[in-house]
Amino acid sequence: MASFWSLIRRSGTLIHHKKKLAFLGIGSAPTFSSSSSSPFMKRPCAASAPYINNHFRFLQRFESTKAEAAQLELQHYVTDDDDNNQVIDFPGGKVAFTSEMRFISESIQKRVPCYRVLDDNGMPMKYSNYVQISKEMAVKMYSDMVTLQTMDSIFYEVQRQGRISFYLTSMGEEAVNIASAAALSFDDVILPQYREPGVLLWRGFTLQQFVDQLFGNTSDLGKGRQMPIHYGSNKHNYFTVSSPIATQLPQAVGAAYSLKIDGKSACAVTYCGDGGTSEGDFHAGLNFAAVMDAPVIFICRNNGWAISTPVEEQFRSDGVVVKGQAYGIWSIRVDGNDALAVYSAVHTAREIAIKEKRPVLIEALTYRVGHHSTSDDSTKYRPIDEIEYWKMERNPVNRFKRWVERNGWWSDHNESELRSSVRKQLMQAIQVAEKAQKPPLSDLFNDVYDRLPSNLEEQERLLREIVKKHPEDYPSDVPL
Fold it and tell me: Are 309 and 245 spatial neighbours (Cβ–Cβ below 8 Å)?
């Protein structure tokens, strides 16, 4: 079966129109339009350059050598009184002169629309266009969303009981996790933030492996050296989570560029929250990706709150989606609580990234129902009724369930059986993890150097002396 992207390229009618773009391009890019009115089918064309030039001769990359194409592009930015021949051949592309002093406004009057497929009741939107998924795919997506939801509920309580030191939930953001993971290939490299365990779950990380990491025992792949929820797995192409905000973004661009140089049919995918866009690494990463044409997908979970900072105090711009356009990156705003919309957008973005060798930015509008972490009490800075509204009325798991049920693919019996099974597996995994031995103290120093350097040998010696001197201050279950 031909890919959704290739079908669009073959069947779509190419028109020159600037309104209702789904993927925001650079300048006045041509868009595809189907017979439907869905904004998803009206996006900047990512067809090959010869196909575009034969129809509109428009400029995808501003090159001064393509004078004719540049001239057509410039006509959109000059007034009738301007002389289109008066241009400056500036490095990077031709720029038209104008006699009118005009400042670019801080934002457009209308906000960028949000692509969605299912309404809040799980009913497909009229004229909706999306990547079709099979019964098996839909059932697995829903099952993993329920599993992630159950994991969060149980692990949060385990932390509150003092059995693990820290936890962070993905409540309210299950669709972004699972649907994005489902749309990717296992060859794609994932550089997560810390709210994407669902991506790892989808890729086959077992419940026991999740629990072992939280308890930091000898079965933990990280040997207990990371905070809880800082998962990582080479087998699953999932980089280990690191706490510093947004550092994974420029790293993802480097990984993507490596895939491009090696000729791999894969891309890098990285996640961040709306708060991460205030970090310098976000801007460096986007610019790096655009300039190097790196096949990387940036997925921003705009969940309304960066810990305790609301989005209106994060940025003045129209959310995150417009930031991609400013750096020359195709971008789309998606309903992050709509699993079908997220799947379709990420699936198509992946084809764009790999086939066109370009980055894509996806802003997923969702909501963090849980506290930022177990170290946070979100009721101190946001109203409880707001949390309850998103938890009940805009719940992504319930919405997708209604759609799956309506297709006849799910029943109450399936629901009861799944939730009971997942809960039982998790409780058993916790019992196993708690009984497992902790990694020895020596694991703090190995796995980095083939031969331990003298400074680390000295640190280990001093640590052992301190533990012996003050044994009451150190956990007794850690082998020396």
Answer: no
Count of helix runs (H) and strand runs (E) in the chain:
15, 11
Question: Residue 43's pLDDT band (boundaries 50, 70, 90)?
Answer: very low
Sequence-distant (6+) residues with CB within 8 A of 59 are: 66, 69, 70, 72, 73, 93
Task: Encode pLDDT of 300-328 as tens digits.
Answer: 999 999 999 999 999 999 999 999 999 99
Given the residues 63, 68, 157, 465, the one annotated as active site: 157
Residue 180 falls in the annotated catalytic set: no
CA dist list (Å): 235 to 190, 199, 206, 242: 12, 13, 12, 18
Residue in 185, 243, 265, 416 annotated catalytic: 243
Token pair for 116: 């969605």
pLDDT tens-digit series, residues 114-127: 999 999 999 999 99
Q: Please tell me the pTM assigned to this model.
A: 0.83
Inter-residue contact 457 to 464 (CB < 8 Å):
no
SS3 sequence of 421-452 = HHHHHHHHHHHHHHHCCCCCHHHHCCCCCCCC
**Partners of residue 31 on adjacent β-strands:** 15, 44
Residue 26: phi, psi to the nearest 5?
Answer: -105, 125
Annotated active-site residue 373? The verdict is yes
Q: d(Cα 340, Cα 126) in Å, to the nearest integer?
A: 14
SS3 state of residue 333: strand
Angle at 294 between CA 6 and CA 316, to 5 degrees: 95
